[in-house]
Specification:
Length: 771
């Protein structure tokens, strides 16, 4: 925390030089990539805007801006000026409330589209039935007026938003998917209206006064059906985020004082205060983050970390809100609350990531910007060519054929799929990663992960556990002391020491249930060890130099000590009452999962390098045990940065995996991957956070990126190829050779389900198995 500075509260705040503000603005009315492209392009041209990313899936604009030049309310007005709705974000709304509001809006959107699609479909069936009945006598006129009334009702209610949004786009000198639908169905409606009211207009010109009312209704029904399926599929893409947001309980049981004494109360989660005592029974979720005061239990943290095995919790252990208490009751002190809680930060991080933009989307954005004008030009060209060529070759009613082909071109064209191809994959992939405890900070990072060629690892806390522990206890030949006896004496002496290795010995003894006593006459000798009395025993524990100073011969264990040292262990001789009793070795052991993780990285064709400030001998031993390719030892934080720059200079894409403050600069230089067990500074500097602190998450993240990129490319391919093939077929290029001409109704069905196929393909990522 930094100290606050008192300022004049009546004076407007003056942003510091080069300050950057950031705001996420909800945007309504966007339906396709052309909409997204126009809003994004307009925002990026606004003075003071440093970067703007508009996400069609999330319905939001994320804007980085210079507060001295432009403010959020001006950005909202800029978006409104493009013809779309925008509001300032609700202040002080939690990540959970934002997600709940988004879920509610998505549910309402799906319900509305489904109702409109069903009613339009029924109306289309009635229209087809009326058309086929072919009433006699004055029936043609009556049939026409019945169909006219039905069509006006469907266009004015179910399809109304197509026309209002197209008109709004026209007023702002732009065009989008709604423009294509409105022009296509509108032209068919006007043609039919003239044929109904004034059939002589066509008969006098040798044309049949045909009507296309049923086609207009069915086109609208099919497009709405596709939109409904798309809305449902889009909601599914955020299922992982929704599941996370739903983890937080609504209430908490706390202990509060009253005149009658302490009482247990169930209160709303928002009323929990910092440092308050919270009680959780078996089977309940932790309402907030905290530190255990009393009790023993196993807690299921799989929903946040992906770790299937419950984690043991005792006094002093940290618990996370939203996790499940499995076996015993716990009393704990509430620590981080509200927006600062772990769960809220994870949800916010995921929302930011899902609202971000992957670089591969740039091509789709470029095409979307010119797509609609090009399609309208193609439709006009189609009409002219059909009319002229048809008339020259004696085609019956060439104007009717020309009109049908032009409408089909307008209807089949679909910029939606291009706008959904990348964002849907990003949303599903980031959600899938979160299920495995992998938090990816954005679409650009997700794309970059798949290009990594070299993985640089910090040693302490990343490859190793980061907590020194006893690995070996060796007694001299014929010693009457058991391992636990020697451990008890050494650990009792070391209880007075603050050295990390001493702390590892003491913790190991306590974990084994060894009873410790307070030493007397304790003295720490810097760089050598410690001496003192434990009970009636005179103790000397340390390196060979300390033993020599006390005239203690160590030759009988020297070879064993050197062997342990070569395996990255620190041996300490133990002398009791002036005679060598044995040695005890301490090491920061390799994590159980590190070897497996590094083997997987090698199997993926990646180079693995370890960067450490430790000495070369220890680093080489750790690298040998873990299977690491190359070691750079004895480097300070700046040296780690230089090594990553050197690797990048060789054309390699480097990821830096670490957990400490000394790793932050190196992570910022490369693709930063932070172990979730690390420091806040390291996590802040990272592009990816591994909630489990397990190196196996690194190959999992890279594998997820590669599969996501494959899905993105598939989506973009099908989105482009659909239009490249569909539009010429709708224009009638196959008619001369095969006599095939696509009807506007079939064109609308193809358009309706093209975007659904893209979203469905992205949803397949949910079934990705990350080994």
């Amino acid at each position: 925390m930094t100290p606050e500075t008192l300022v004049d509260t009546n004076a407007p705040p003056t942003p510091p030089e080069n300050a950057t503000g950031k705001v996420v603005i909800p945007v309504t009315g966007m339906t396709c990539a052309a909409c997204q492209s126009r809003v994004q392009r307009t925002l990026n041209k606004t003075p003071g805007v440093r970067d703007a990313t508009v996400n069609l899936m999330m319905g939001s604009a994320t804007v980085s801006y210079d507060p001295s030049v432009v403010q959020p309310d001006a950005l909202v007005n800029t978006i409104r000026g493009t013809g779309y709705g925008a509001e300032l974000p609700v202040p002080d709304r939690s990540a959970f409330e934002e997600q709940a509001a988004r879920d509610e809006a998505q549910t309402a959107e799906f319900a509305e589209l489904r109702l409109k699609a069903i009613v339009s479909g029924i109306a289309g069936g009635i229209a087809m039935l009326v058309s086929m009945l072919g009433m006699s006598g004055g029936g043609m006129t009556l049939r026409g007026y019945i169909l006219l009334a039905l069509t006006i009702a469907v266009m004015g209610w179910a399809g109304r938003h197509f026309y209002t949004r197209a008109w709004a786009a026209f007023r702002h000198h732009s065009a989008d998917m709604n423009t294509l639908i409105a022009v296509g169905t509108g032209a068919a409606f006007i043609y039919s209206l003239i044929a109904t009211i004034s059939p002589g207009f066509f008969t006098s010109r040798g044309l049949a006064p045909d009507v296309y009312y049923e086609a207009v209704i069915i086109i609208i029904a099919l497009i709405l059906t596709g939109n409904a399926f798309e809305a449902r599929a889009k909601k599914e893409t955020s299922s992982a985020l929704r599941a996370l947001a739903n983890l937080q309980p609504k209430t908490a049981r706390v202990v509060r004082s009253s005149p009658e004494g302490e009482r247990e109360l169930d209160i709303p989660i928002d009323d929990v205060r910092a440092d308050e005592t919270v009680i959780v029974r078996p089977g309940e979720r932790m309402p907030v983050d905290g530190e255990v005061l009393s009790g023993d239990s196993a807690v299921d943290e799989s929903m946040l970390t992906g770790e299937s095995m419950p984690v043991e919790k005792h006094a002093g252990a940290r618990v996370i809100g939203g996790t499940i208490n499995r076996t015993g009751a716990l009393r704990y002190r509430a620590t981080t609350l509200g927006a600062d809680s772990t769960l809220a930060q994870v949800v916010r991080l995921m929302r930011d990531a899902q609202g971000s933009r992957a670089p591969i989307q740039g091509l789709a954005d470029t095409v979307s910007g010119i797509f609609v004008p090009v399609v309208i030009s193609l439709a006009i060209t189609t009409f002219v060519v059909w009319f002229v060529v048809g008339d020259m070759h004696g085609v019956t009613a060439p104007a009717v054929h020309a009109f049908a082909a032009a409408v089909a071109v307008l209807i089949i064209a679909c910029p939606c799929a291009m706008g959904l191809a990348v964002p849907t994959a990003v949303m599903v992939a980031t959600g899938k990663g979160a299920q495995f405890g992998i938090l990816i900070k954005g679409g650009a990072v997700l794309q970059e992960l798949g290009t990594i060629t070299t993985v640089a690892l910090d040693k302490t806390g990343t490859v190793t556990a980061g907590r020194p522990t006893v690995t070996d206890i060796v007694g001299v030949q014929g010693s009457p002391l058991s391992d636990d006896d020697m451990l008890a004496l050494v650990a009792s002496l070391e209880t007075m020491s603050e050295h990390p290795l001493a702390e590892g010995i003491v913790q190991h003894a306590r974990d084994r249930g060894v009873v410790l006593v307070s030493p007397e006459g304790f003295q720490s000798i810097s760089g050598q060890g410690a001496v003192g009395n434990v009970g009636t025993r005179a103790m000397v524990v340390g390196n060979e130099a300390l033993m020599t100073a006390h005239n203690i011969e160590v030759s009988s264990l020297r070879d064993r000590a050197e062997s342990l040292s070569s395996d990255a262990r620190t041996p300490m001789y133990v002398a009791i009452d002036g005679a060598l009793a044995g040695l005890i070795a301490v090491a920061d052991p390799i994590k159980d999962t590190s070897r497996e993780a590094i083997a997987r990285l090698h199997a993926m064709g990646l180079e693995v390098v370890m960067l450490t400030g430790d000495n070369q001998r220890t680093a080489d031993a750790i690298a040998r045990q873990a299977g690491i390719d190359r070691v750079v030892a004895g480097v300070l934080p700046a040296g780690k940065v230089d090594e990553i720059k050197r690797l990048q200079g060789e054309g390699k894409v480097v990821a830096m995996v670490g957990d400490g403050v000394n790793d932050a600069a190196a992570m910022a230089q490369g693709i930063g991957i932070a172990m979730g067990t690390g420091t806040d500074i390291a996590i802040e500097a990272a592009d990816v956070v591994l909630m489990r602190g397990d190196l196996r998450s690194v190959p999992q993240a890279i594998m997820l990126s590669r599969r996501t990129m494959s899905t993105m490319k598939q989506n973009l391919f099908w989105a482009f190829i659909y239009n490249v093939i569909g539009i010429p077929i709708a224009a009638g290029v196959l008619y001369p050779a095969f006599g095939w001409l696509l009807s506007p109704i079939l064109a609308s069905a193809a358009m309706a389900f093209s975007s659904v196929s893209v979203v469905t393909n992205s949803l397949r990522l949910r079934g990705t198995v990350l080994k």
